[in-house]
Give the backbone structure.
Amino acid sequence: MIYWLTNTAASAAYIGYAQHSGWGAAKEISGVPTAALQFAHDVGIRRYAETENNITRWTDITDRGGHFAALEEPAILIHDISEFFRPLRST
């Protein structure tokens, strides 16, 4: 509804058309270190995430949280982000 009311549906959908590869074509892993934090009531499938991303940290929280991690479990989210970046910092 927001896209309809603000007349931004076309620009929001443009990313799909701006891709260099066709739909369904295999993509290369960029090599950029990526982290994922999977809460209990959210959907994420690691084997699919690993096909296009360089997953260096994957955290499963099975007893709490959901899709809105920053609102539901901000302390866990901040801790996981900090731990992901710790080894990437230059000394």
